[in-house]
Amino acid sequence: GTAQIGVTGLAVMGRNLARNFARNGYTVALHNRTAARTRELVEHFGDEGDFVATGSAEDFVAALERPRRLVIMVKAGEATDAVIGEFAPLLENGDVIIDGGNAHFEDTRRRERELRERGIHFVGTGISGGEEGALDGPSIMPGGSEESYASLGPMLEKISAKAKDGAPCVTHVGPDGAGHFVKMTHNGIEYADMQLIGEAYQLLRDVAGYSPARIADIFRTWNTGRLESYLIEITAEVLSHVDGATGKPFVDVVLDRAEQKGTGRWTVQIALDLGVPVSGIAEAVFARSVSGHADLRDASRHLAGPAARTLGEDEAAAFADRVEQALYASKIVAYTQGFHEIAAGSEQYGWNIDLGAVASIWRGGCIIRAAFLDRITGAYEARPRMVGLLADRGFAEEIAAAQDDWRTVVATAVTQGVPTPAFAAALAYYDSLRAERLPAALTQGQRDYFGAHTYRRTDRDGTFHTLWGGDRTEVES
Ligand code: NBP
């Protein structure tokens, strides 16, 4: 074969990824279960580069130069296993399968193990940036063996997004499922980012009394500062869009029930397993869930709320500035929690993930790309063993400067009855970390009282139990 890379699964993502490889000078073999997709790609985009259209699995594999590199871009889950089952018997020692779908990292670990036994490299790869990213340059998070990255890395670097300093947005994240784990957490952070932006919008709308068009302008202004990011930019676009049919703001004619595909939920499930507090991300997932419970919401509309209070023009402007502070501080917390989860996963699975490198490959191509990520990279480069992002002095100082406004915004939301679960969770996390003493001491006392679960003391080593039902003397256990 002559193709340096093959792509099977030519829906939006696979098609655009194949075109991206071809535009970068690679010969790309094409395959799809339904042959029409392969034909359409060649028909519409065949002149963009060298494609080898194939029909059968055998022809596809034969079209690839050795060692073969083939990208699977199908619906995550059973479809991925079906495709692997179809191709693996046709492959040889040293060939590389890249799974670019949104696989669960545990599936990736299993597939990697099974294929390794057959001498095949399996590279579970997170790809972020949606269809546009796949075509023009995504952020790429490959796992798998060092050896596979040696042959694959240069190609991925070519097709990836480039950060402002020209660096390719791809790095070998770590072995087996590390890439998909990091992609999962990226999506979890994305959920939190989106929810925080949503809460900022709701406050500007309900407390400041601003129109969607005016709020769009505020987001445009914020996008020139420290909040500069893709999500803030598209928020302004969505908010300023007017519905063609009704002439109303687009955001007012869209049903307010958010959907989800699963990576945010996985981020929270895995965080629970690893014991990592990702409260901001969890609230973002729950907020989508609440929005979707139409019956519950309909049955609850009569519930009492506080009397509405509208702000004067000057007050509203000052409040909008405070919301920017609250959004920024909450965002730092969301990223702190997300990076904690990556650090914990890395520890649990022995991945040795470079957290600064992860932040740096998210600077371009992906949905959470933001100026802010440079700062995270810098913080981890300065202190690779840093225990949490808030240990960075720069971020701590920024939160210190923002905290009064952050508190005012959360307090205002509470008194006005505007739900801001992610802002509030982020602030509670911050205050929990700061606290000199937590009520966990009382929790331990309760646990010891009802279940003899024992406790440790602040003043000496050992494990203790109080005889609550008896004379309440303390015994060492
Ligand atoms: P879809 O997730 O909609 O999957 C469609 C593709 O899967 C088609 O090529 C289809 O073939 C193929 N397929 C299915 Br479904 N079942 C199959 C089976 N049993 N055997 C062989 N092929 C099968 O496509 P997508 O939206 O392009 O996403 C592809 C992957 O990329 C997914 O894992 C997704 O989670 C991930 N991803 C998507 C985005 C995004 O923005 N959309 C971003 C990042 C990652 P057919 O044509 O014969 O039906």
From TrEMBL:
GO terms for biological process: D-gluconate metabolic process; pentose-phosphate shunt. Residues 179-469 form the 6-phosphogluconate dehydrogenase C-terminal domain. Pathway: Carbohydrate degradation; pentose phosphate pathway; D-ribulose 5-phosphate from D-glucose 6-phosphate (oxidative stage): step 3/3. Substrate binds at residues 102, 128-130, 186-187, 191, 261, 288, 447, 453. NADP(+) binds at residues 9-14, 32-34, 74-76, 102. It comes from the Bacteria. The keyword Cell membrane does not apply. Keywords: Gluconate utilization, NADP, Oxidoreductase, Pentose shunt. It catalyses: 6-phospho-D-gluconate + NADP(+) = D-ribulose 5-phosphate + CO2 + NADPH. It is an enzyme of class 1 (oxidoreductase). Its EC number is 1.1.1.44. GO terms for molecular function: NADP binding; phosphogluconate dehydrogenase (decarboxylating) activity. The keyword NADP applies. Pfam families: 6PGD, NAD_binding_2. The active site is at residues 183, 190. Catalyzes the oxidative decarboxylation of 6-phosphogluconate to ribulose 5-phosphate and CO(2), with concomitant reduction of NADP to NADPH. Homodimer. Belongs to the 6-phosphogluconate dehydrogenase family. This is 6-phosphogluconate dehydrogenase, decarboxylating. It comes from Streptomyces griseus subsp. griseus (strain JCM 4626 / CBS 651.72 / NBRC 13350 / KCC S-0626 / ISP 5235). The lineage of its organism: Bacteria, Bacillati, Actinomycetota, Actinomycetes, Kitasatosporales.
